[in-house]
Structures are given as C-alpha cells and as structure tokens.
Amino acid sequence: MNTHDGYVMDVAYPPHFHKEIQPVWLASLAQFLGTAAPDITRPYSCCELGCGMGINLLVAAATNPLGQFVGVDANDKALAIARAAAKSVGLTNVHFVHADFAHFAQSNNLFFDFIVSHGVWSWIAPNQQRNILQLVAKFLKPKGLFYLHYMCHPGATPMVPIQALLNDLAKQLPGTSEEKLSAALDFVCQLDLAGAFVDQPQLSDKIRALKQKPPGYLAHDFLTDHWAPQHSVDIHRLVAQAGMTFLGSANALENLDKLSVPGAMQPLLSNLASPALRERVKDLARNQHQRSDLFQRAPTPLGQQDALRQVDALRFQALPKASLPGAVTFKTPIGEIQGPSEVFSPPLERLAEGPATFAELRQLPAFSDALGTLSQSLQMLMWNGDIHPQRPDGLDTSEHVSRLAAWIERNQLKLQIAADCGTAVHRLDDD
C-alpha cells in the first residue's frame, strides 16, 4: 500500500464537489456574518490545500474569471487528471502544484484572498496540520478567509475503533488500497452480522452504509495512520495562534442557532459567555460529526448600516432544484423543520420570476419589518439548495462553462454548472 506520511497515495481521491468552498459562497456568508469579505468584483486569488482531482477548482476557474486558483496535492495521479481537464477546457486561471504542504510552504510566493481545505485535516499527520496553519499564517491576505473542514466529536467518536480496525486489517491484506479496504470492510460487516454491535444500533447502521460508498473514497477516509476527530475548541485555539478569527460556519444552517439547536436548549446556550464553550455545546446538541469552519485574518466588523448595505447588494437566483412556493420541509441534523409558507413562499415566488437583490426582497410585504427573518430564510434556502447568490462581476463565462460541462458529461459526474452563481449543483437525478 503506497502511503505518504501515513496517508494513502495509490488511489486518487474521487471527485467530490463542495459548494461551501467556492468564493461566491464564502464571500456571501462572511457578509451575512457581518464582516467585510474579500472583494470579488476585482481580481482575487484562491488556494485549495488537498485539491485531489481538482473538480472544485475547475468549476471555480471556469465560472469566476476574475479569480486565480491554485490547487496543491501530494498525489500526482490525481493532479494529472486535474491538469488534463484544465487543458481540455482551456482554463488559464488555474494551476496545480504537486507538493506536500511543507514543501509548498517553502516554495510558494503567492498571497491569497481565500485558502480552503476540505477532507484533509483529520486524515493527515500532526506535522502536516502544522504546515497548513503555517501556510495560512504566511500567505493569507488581511480580510482573507480560511475554510477548514474536519471531523469532530461527538458525532465521529463512535467510528474511532472501527477505523483503527479497518486500518490494522488492511495492513495485513494483499492488494491495492481499494482491495484492502473492501476486504477489511467485509470482515467488519461479518462482525456486525455476528452481533458484535448489537448494543450499538447506530454504529451498526453506519457500518452498513459504508458498503454503499466507493472503495476509493473509503480507502482515503479510513486507511490512514492519523485518523482523528477533533474538538472544535481545540481547533479554534490552534487557528487563533496562526492569526485567524473564527467567524462561524460555511454551512449556512449552523449559523442559525434557533433552527439548528433544539429549542429547549437555546436559553441554556445563550447564558454561556464563552464563544468556544457555546460551540462545544452546539456540537453536542447536533451530535456533530464534521465541521466546516470559517475564519478570517484581521476581520473588519461592520456597523449595522454598513452590514445592511453590503447584504443589500447580494443578488440571488433560484436553482434548478428550488422548492415550490409554500411550506418548505428542511431535513436538518436535529430532525425535520417545517418552514412556514408565509416566510418562504414570498422569496421563492419572487425568485421564480428572476434574480433579485436582498434590497429588493426586503421590499416584499412579509419582510417590511422583519429583516432578520428574511436573512434567516434566505440562508436556509441557500443551505437547502433552493437559491444561491450570484457572482457580482457579470462577466461572460459561456465558452469555458460549455467546455467544462462537456468534460463533466464525459466523466459521468452528476453536476450541473450554475455559471451566474460561480458554482455547480448536483444534478436533478442525483438524489
């Protein structure tokens, strides 16, 4: 099994697209959180640490012509795919660097408005984690945004012994990483059928669900010597030492405590003075198994009028999977939430007619005296995949988008590009 610093290298990480690491999404959420975001109406730069096959950067580069994008990964097989795709699409605003994070920290001379890392932190050695923070400390611009995804307690805690068993089994088995993982998982499933987890039904369900996922993805997820869920308070302390301030989550729902934390807990949560302690309690309340945290270097908190002015300028459009006007059901980690028709029908009906700014949407009678309700409803609809903020530059991206769409089709990826939003969405048949 080919590994680098305890991490699988003989199989490329499958292409997974994450809307939460795209610059339009990140800048918009920062604005909702009341801080001045990087200006994406002018040229800007973005770096993804651990980019794999580069699908996130390919979409970003094709749909955001003002951005310059850099992807870093230690897996040359994955980068070969990314580079070939960029060449076939004709993208000149993205390039891929074959390096681990230590070597990139030494060789890089660029500065970035966005640095993002998804699906890497919890799987790599502590020294590589320190290298990520070194990169952020050295190369993120003032007001720059840092996105960090990681597994966390308590939701990921039950899988710790299962991962250790899978990893130990794989080391004793022949074949590629995918073959080792498949055989090891078969053995764990046999343990499950034999009743090993009879007193842990949720764990049993998780193990069975793994059988439905691609072996290549699972090999990256579980065959590492450094698999470790984190406590958010510990991560925030480390990132603060690198000069970053925690803003909130890149998952829009998790910034809305009234909708993402059980109602009976909210008075207890509001009585906690420590932001770090509140995050720890919210992780417990949600049985959080992963976090997508958003940090900023030297943030500029805005006053009420300035914050409203920048949010007013955000323009939204309906996405292909937009809910129909009426009550909207949101499937959240704490259960289903019924969004009332009087709150969600007005923006859905207006956006069905065409894009509209926040300033225009707050002229709707339902929100004339309820800006907070409008803000929360739009963020919920963003999280649910119903709407998305548009790119503010208005530049034509049709040539590169059409080429990337053809590449996506050839590679049978279930993505549909939303060019005006600088992102992509999972296709309607990807349920």
TrEMBL record:
GO biological process: methylation
SUPFAM superfamilies, A to Z: S-adenosyl-L-methionine-dependent methyltransferases (SSF53335)
Alphabetized UniProt keyword annotations: Methyltransferase, Transferase
Molecular functions per Gene Ontology: methyltransferase activity
Protein name in the entry: Methyltransferase domain-containing protein
Residue ranges occupied by any Methyltransferase domain in the UniProt entry: 45-169
Bilayer-spanning residue ranges: none
Domain Methyltransferase regulatory: 216-297
Keyword ATP-binding on entry: no
Xref: Pfam families: Methyltransf_31, MethyTransf_Reg
Species this chain originates from: Stutzerimonas nitrititolerans
PANTHER family for the chain: TRANS-ACONITATE 2-METHYLTRANSFERASE-RELATED
